[in-house]
């Protein structure tokens, strides 16, 4: 696949998708949204983990306000362009790490937060910048953030539009991990390799179970766990995992 606004490459089972408009802090325009969606919905079977990151000093500054010469129908743009992109991340057939290398603002922050795991450099920050221009958080922010940090912090983030440093975001539970800048690249690589070498079908079942838990009561969740565990228990990866445990060796998981 050939792209203009992103860089995309696969190596050792890890697909790296780099938002590549550094001159505008990787702001999301129509073409970039389409290219992200295309890249993630056409993954080959050898991809076992995806790393989503930004080029230059920013992760993503959010919506490009110059897109379409300012003639934006925001409702249609969210429905027709953002929703497919966000679902491509959430429904990706491999676990997705958002490696937040710098500021993640507006829709750029929420693009990261829809990933399975968010790892940020300590110099990065997360900004719900929407109210600064008279808008509300979108791109799934009003869904993801309250579930991660609770209503009080979510509303505070959205009303005041303060930049939340990566370390604070990790302490709040908004993201998984904040790493010192000089450890960030290697830390992301190590985590991606771990996932790429793991039982990726089980990882996707974990994703589905956690997502369903917010709407299920206990009985429904127990039934879902039983069904998903039954599927996992019939997999080659489970047999390999047990064999490796008994033989005291590293497992060689097949994945999806």
Automatic annotation (TrEMBL):
Alphabetized CDD domains for the sequence: crotonase-like
InterPro entries given in the database record: ClpP/crotonase-like_dom_sf, Enoyl-CoA_hyd/isom_CS, Enoyl-CoA_hydra/iso, Enoyl-CoA_hydra_C
PROSITE patterns in UniProt: ENOYL_COA_HYDRATASE
Any Pfam family hit: ECH_1
Family: Belongs to the enoyl-CoA hydratase/isomerase family.
Name of the protein in question: Enoyl-CoA hydratase-related protein
Organism of this sequence: Paracoccus maritimus
């Amino acid at each position: 696949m050939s792209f203009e606004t992103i860089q995309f490459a696969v190596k050792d089972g890890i697909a790296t998708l780099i938002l590549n408009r550094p001159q505008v802090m990787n702001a999301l325009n129509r073409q970039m949204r389409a290219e992200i969606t295309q890249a993630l919905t056409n993954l080959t079977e050898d991809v076992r983990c995806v790393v989503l990151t930004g080029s230059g000093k920013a992760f993503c500054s959010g919506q490009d306000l110059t897109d379409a010469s300012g003639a934006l129908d925001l409702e249609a743009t969210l429905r027709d362009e953002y929703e497919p992109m966000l679902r491509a991340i959430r429904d990706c057939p491999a676990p997705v790490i958002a490696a937040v290398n710098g500021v993640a603002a507006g829709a750029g922050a929420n693009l990261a937060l829809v990933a399975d795991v968010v790892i940020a450099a300590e110099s990065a920050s997360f900004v719900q910048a929407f109210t600064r221009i008279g808008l509300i958080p979108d791109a799934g922010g009003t869904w993801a953030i309250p579930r991660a940090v609770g209503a009080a912090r979510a509303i505070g983030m959205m009303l005041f539009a303060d930049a939340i440093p990566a370390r604070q975001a990790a302490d709040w539970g908004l993201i998984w991990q904040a790493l010192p800048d000089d450890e960030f690249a290697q830390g992301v690589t190590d985590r991606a390799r771990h996932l790429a070498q793991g039982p990726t079908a089980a990882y996707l079942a974990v994703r589905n179970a956690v997502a369903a838990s917010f709407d299920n009561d206990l009985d429904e969740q127990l039934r879902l766990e039983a069904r998903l565990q039954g599927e996992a228990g019939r997999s080659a990866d489970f047999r390999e995992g047990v064999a490796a445990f008994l033989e005291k060796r590293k497992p060689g998981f097949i994945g999806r």
